[in-house]
Amino acid sequence: MADIICRNSILFDGSGKSPIIADVAITDGKITAIGSQLDGIHGATEIDCQDLWLMPGLLDIHTHLDLELELAPELPEVVRHGTTTVVISNCSIGVTYGHQRRNGEDPIVDCFARVENMPKSVLSRVADTCTWSDSQGYLHHLESLPLGV
């Protein structure tokens, strides 16, 4: 018995192929069966997904979410769109090497303010929390955040 069965969904499998009409069984939070009319499987909760899309989580490979992780590490706005995985710190805007303040200049805050149109007062508060100065320190910091939902 599955915990949940999504019946008659328009299933996109992430391969790029055209969608199919399928049932999806979920047990302990994992997909355990996919097929057309999974008649032998019953779920505690059955959801009629006729005319509804079902797809794997989406991946966003270009984000400017580095500072957003400091404000809301669960990224509720991103998850609400169906995105379940993001790549951060892969462009010139990022906090991988800390706040990078030197000689009264604040390049990360200035750059985020211009590109993301975020208030400097908010950005400065976030930059003030940067305690790392290298990528290893940043990774250690990320491990301490309650990322995702």
TrEMBL record:
Going by the UniProt record, its keywords in alphabetical order are:
Hydrolase
Entries under InterPro entries matching the protein = Metal-dep_hydrolase_composite, Metallo-dep_Hydrolases_sf
Q: What is its EC number?
A: 3.5.1.81
Single GO molecular-function term?
A: hydrolase activity, acting on carbon-nitrogen (but not peptide) bonds, in cyclic amides
Which EC class is this protein assigned? Answer: hydrolase
Give the record's GO CC terms: cytosol
- The name this protein goes by in its record: N-acyl-D-amino-acid deacylase
The species is: Acetobacter pasteurianus subsp. pasteurianus
- What lineage is on file? Bacteria, Pseudomonadati, Pseudomonadota, Alphaproteobacteria, Acetobacterales
